[in-house]
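In the previous chapter we treated chains in isolation. Here, by contrast, the input contains two separate entities that must be folded as one system, with a combined length of 964 residues.
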Amino acid sequence: MHIIDRRRDPGGKSLSNRQRFIRRARSLVRQAVREASAGRSIKDADKGGEVTVPADGVHEPSFRRSNEGGYRERVLPGNKEFVEGDRVPRPDGGGGKGSKASDSGDGEDEYSFALSRQEFLELFLEDLELPDLAKRQVMGVEESVPQRAGFQSSGSPSQLSIERTMRNAMSRRIALKRPRPDELKAAREALDALKAEEADEEVIAKAKAELDTMRRKMKLVPYLDPLDVRFRRFEQVPQPIARAVMFCLMDVSGSMDQHMKDLAKRFYSLLYLFLQTRYERVEVVFIRHTHEAREVDEETFFYSRETGGTVVSTALDEMHGIIKERFPADQWNVYAAQASDGDNLPSDNVRTLGLLDNVILPLCQFYAYLEVGHGEDGGRFRLSGDEPTGLWRAYQTIVKPDGHMAMRKVNDRRDIFPVFRDLFKKRDSAVAKGGA
Amino acid sequence: MATARKTTKKSTGQTSTSSPPADNLLFTGRDWDFELIDRVNGAIEKIAIGEMGLDPYRSQIEVITSEQMLDAYASTGMPLFYHHWSFGKHYAYNESMYRKGFQGLAYEIVINSDPCVCYIMEENSATMQTLVIAHAAFGHSHFFKNNYVFQQWTDAEGITDYLSFAKKYIAQCEDKYGAQAVERLIDSAHALQSVGIHRYPRSRHLDLRTEREREQQRREHGEALFNDLWRTVPDAKLKRQPKPDVSRRRELLGLPEENVLYFLEKTAPKLAPWQREILRIVRIIAQYFYPQRQTKMMNEGCATFSHYRIMTRLHETGQIDDGSFMEFLHSHSSVVMQPDYNDPRFSGINPYALGFAMCQDIERICIEPTEEDHAWFPDIAGCNDGYGVLRDVWANYRDESVVLQFLSPALIRKMGLFQIVDDEEEEDIEIAAIHNERGYTDIRRALARQYDVSRIDPDIQVVDVDLAGDRRLQLRHDIVNGVSLEEEDAWRVLRHLANLWGYPVVLEERENDEVRKTYETQPSASFE
């Protein structure tokens, strides 16, 4: 008998099968992931977790006998009251017959399993990208990658190139005619043979001299010489990297009700998640505004409350200031997303438009405007839910079909993800589509 | 793949060193280590081989974690298997069931190979390790080695080598032809797995090692014969050959053929050599598992009876203490529990329960027969060689025949077995036989049929194809007792079949020579 301890063996033997399964059920899993994420709170949006897919999509068929109809005999245990010839009504829904059908879980209607955070995010954010990530900057030393660049005669032992070293050693040994061990052995044996057959003194002396020369040569010409040693050489090649900054502008004024703020925050949390997962080097700037705008940190942006009037241009001013100060537009890809309920101080509309059209848009690669509306029951205070808001009307005038600005409206939690995908889906051309 | 019945686990065990107890006891407490396993194995061997006369394979015991056990589940317990998403699906399912606590894990998995590989979980207690070694490394292993069905159909020495060949071959195909193409082919092959079995042994003997060499030779032969010049030879004038008549044509193709995968591998017009080889791999592995289905009940019976007897003897000889024995009994009795037909836990006859009860009953007949036993089993009643008779039963019968010959009236009464008839045309279910004089034979016969795999699986055969004509593949399902095929699945499988065949496929369901239903499909995306 052998006992083998397999506990230390690498786990995850099924990992490859699991990946195949997820790829197979991709569309189903993707659907499930998106449905799952709609119901989650903002904080949990990026957790992995259980998803359920309909079993139908991953069903493995086989020829089997139907569970219904026909003439069936069956032997059951545990008879207590029946005697031969008794008749009992058939239990509902096939009754006892059904239980025989499947014991492998194939009979399940739904199929649930747990996804890791990474798997979840990958499916969740599939096919999304920042449009037009174009401006590239050559950075200093810290943004360089090592690249192979031949060999050198000094270096750290870890970079020793054994192949190259041995090659040098060999060519040197051949060039200096260092005798090989087998040659030496042959010469020695020849000498022994000569001695054994008691050949001519002279012949023996000659062979001996030859052997001595060989031995000396072997000592003089080392097998491996410090001269032979070569090390792999690397060069640091500066790497052009794309730098991007995303401005998140959110209206937190009194006119935004709880529902709207929730929608806007959901949108930004998606955006933030997306940027964090996909782009390591994207800076995010959070600006929230009422009648005055302020740059805040992530925590404040998502979780604190404030109230006041609405002046959109203040946020744009703030953004402009930050760009000038920290993110020069010739070095940075600038993106912005603005969420608002569409209310603005009417007198501010003109200034906002001017600022946006002349200053902000030329600096931006892409500008998304998201208008959050009331929920389905929240619209009763409005005369007409479909009436475009002031800001929407104003923005419409500057949206061009091939421009860098897009506008979308969102009324319900369910719409957030489709709209988000629509805004950031991969495009073939770099043209951002215009608004509604 | 016999697994001890699934029960929820207790706290995890640790593998700290336990000193050998002073007296006769093999161990105390629940901790175990490798030395202890070795000691226990020796003690079991004395009883199993010395007293019971078992003849198991050499064993190889592998200690694994619960995660590895889940891995093993996913690949039907085999140590290595080719990659396919369906195994990932089973893994994901089992994993989520396990995490939620709906389902515990088996204590062990045993593989029909030589040496016999037994996986045991690290978190089992010392008593449980003793139990699973007795159960798997001796009980199952003896059955695998000696039962004629396994001897006839499986090659215990070659299986691991063959699986590793299959895994490599399929991985190579994925590299060469793309993972998608291979996956689609395996999907189709899996759908036909249940009709990829030779039910009747032929003269040839399965040897998986030569199987692998033959694949190599086939390919080399093909490459050696390849000569590009043949391409340039002008086509011979097509001579109108007289059409062979239908019966001659079928004979040439070896029809009717019940092994659909085999037929496709040999005859499908459009498949590439590597595709045929993959069909072959799926078919051979399905064939390897075929004996397991035929002998599930007695295989478990043999293992359960062995572990029960071994543990009892260990206790009697003072090698395990009362506490361990109680722990064993608790686990054993939940394994062999048979809920009644009207119990909510009932899900068919528990193979462990019936197998164990039959083994005990056979032993009883041999040693303390009653009048009735003398009448029913004149050959074995009172022969006093319980182990000898049992060894014969384990070696020469499968579930169907063992029930038909050895289910005694006493056991029918004890289990309260009764037979029901559920006829579609009747309003009620009829109780056809109960445990009385008139009923014994009927119940025996009906229960035996219940274990007859050829009656559980639908009888589907390839009956005809005109290769020179429209190449429409004709299959027939002979309906037994009016039970037709599950329709939705049948359509799906046929679509897979049509894709493999490359031409239309027709399946007729016949009952008493009348056609009940006809399925016809065209290939939607045939394999090229």
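Chain B touches chain A through 101 residues (CB under 8 Å). Residues 351-455 of chain B form one domain. Compare these points with the single-chain example from earlier in the chapter.
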